[in-house]
Structure formats: structure tokens, C-alpha cells
Amino acid sequence: EPEVTQTPSHQVTQMGQEVILRCVPISNHLYFYWYRQILGQKVEFLVSFYNNEISEKSEIFDDQFSVERPDGSNFTLKIRSTKLEDSAMYFCASSEARTGGTEAFFGQGTRLTVV
Amino acid sequence: AQSVAQPEDQVNVAEGNPLTVKCTYSVSGNPYLFWYVQYPNRGLQFLLKYITGDNLVKGSYGFEAEFNKSQTSFHLKKPSALVSDSALYFCAVRDRPGNTPLVFGKGTRLSVIA
């Protein structure tokens, strides 16, 4: 069964460093997302991406964040200068179509720890 | 703005008993409702969804959910719980068609006791 894959599964970084979280969406999907889950809190939307551009972003997704689809398979989230409060589980997701009733498929997540 | 409420942080149920995990929502338009499950150290797995039509929807692993428009609820149910159902369950909603964000509830931890 096709699945969304994320690497690394766990990343520890020092405050102020740049990190890149990587995702390979399901191959025939066209819509890509990043969500995050701070420990013990709800899953929050960060950004959606379609046709090589951002469709929508939340207030969390400030200038420190960027997304890119560098090739035909990868989808990355970059945090330029990490802060302690960026520590969270980051989930990549993809969906096939643009109807509201289309479910998103999530990856296993990358646990980011900023020290 | 759309929102989802899961009023219970924790639900405990004995194996073999029916289970219900509650979810209520608030949207401005017609809702698209989803349930996801998260096992320890795993991602979110899609369970089921309601778009339109029959108010009772069936999903993976024997789960079902009932859409109730008047009560703005979408409770997750299973007739007979298994220990392996123990996990964190999230309800989510969209109120617009298209590539729009899912809004999640805070999650309910289900513990099924043998």
C-alpha cells in the first residue's frame, strides 16, 4: 500500500540552526501539507502546497519556515533558525484530489527537538 | 471559523464492550468530517469520513461514526472493543471544498482493558 514517508524520524538540533525535514508524498498525489503537533497538544496546520506554490498557510508559518518541492518526488520543510518552541512532531501529508471530502494521508512524522 | 471539540481526554472501556469517542464540530458551511487514529510513535492513520449521504459511515478496523447535523456531532463507535484499539483518536473537519486545512480536535486517548 502506498504511503507517505518522512526522514529523519528524529532530529536533534541546536537553537539557531537550520533544519530540513524531508517527505516523499504518495506518487499520484498532487496536494501536500505540513502539520505539527507539540507534545500533548492538538495537531496544527502549517502549510499546503499545490502546483509548486503555497496554497494556504497558517499564522505559525512565518518567515522562518519555507517549503519546497525540489524534484518530482520530495517535499521539504525548512526552518531557518530554530527556536526552542519549534520542538514538535512534524507531519507531512498528501492527498489525491482537491475536493473537500478527500482524506489526507499522513507520514510517520519527524520528531524535532531543539536544544 | 471552524472548530472541533473532543470533550473527553481519556476513555476507558473493557475489551468486548462497545466504545464511543465523542466529537462535536462548528463550521459555517457543510462539514467534511474525518477520524484519524495515532498509535504510539506512529503517524496519523485515516479511519473514516463523512461527506454526504448516509449518516452512519463505516471505516477501517470495524469502526463506524454517526453524523448528527442537529447536534453537530460525529461520534466514533465500535460495537466490541479490542485491546489493540488502544490509541489516540483525532476528529477533524473542513468546511470548504478544495485543498483546505484540516482542523483537528485535541484528541482522545482510548484505553481498552483486557
Q: What's the alpha carbon Rg of chain B, rounded to whole Å?
A: 13 Å
What is the mean pLDDT of chain A? 92
Helical region count of chain A? 0
Low-pLDDT stretches of chain A are none
**pLDDT below 50 for ≥5 consecutive residues: which ranges of chain B?**
none
pLDDT averaged over residues of chain B:
93
Number of strands of chain B: 12
Notable features of this structure?
heterodimer; A: 115 residues; mainly beta; 7-stranded mixed sheet; 4-stranded antiparallel sheet; 11 strands; B: 114 residues; 12 strands
Description:
The complex is a heterodimer of chains A (115) and B (114). Chain A starts with a strand and ends with a strand. Chain A is globular. Chain A has strands at residues 5-7, 10-13, 19-24, 31-37, 43-50, 53-57, 65-68, 75-79, 88-95, 105-106, 110-114. In chain A, β5 and β6 form a beta hairpin. Chain A is mostly beta strands. In chain A, strands 2, 4, 5, 6, 9, 10 and 11 form a 7-stranded mixed β-sheet that branches. Chain A has a 4-stranded antiparallel β-sheet with strand order 1-3-8-7, with no helix packed on it. Chain B is mainly β and 114 residues long. Chain B is 0% helix and 51% strand. In chain B, a hairpin with a 5-residue loop joins β7 (56-58) and β8. Chains A and B meet through β4, β5, β9 and β10 of A and β5, β6, β10 and β11 of B.
In short:
The complex is a heterodimer of chains A (115) and B (114). Chain A is mainly β.
Write the layout of secondary structure elements.
The complex is a heterodimer of chains A (115) and B (114).
Chain A: E1 5-7, E2 10-13, E3 19-24, E4 31-37, E5 43-50, E6 53-57, E7 65-68, E8 75-79, E9 88-95, E10 105-106, E11 110-114
Parallel strand pairs in A: 2-11
Antiparallel strand pairs in A: 1-3, 3-8, 4-5, 4-9, 5-6, 7-8, 9-10, 9-11
Chain B: E1 3-5, E2 10-14, E3 19-21, E4 24-26, E5 32-38, E6 44-50, E7 56-58, E8 64-68, E9 73-78, E10 87-94, E11 103-104, E12 108-113
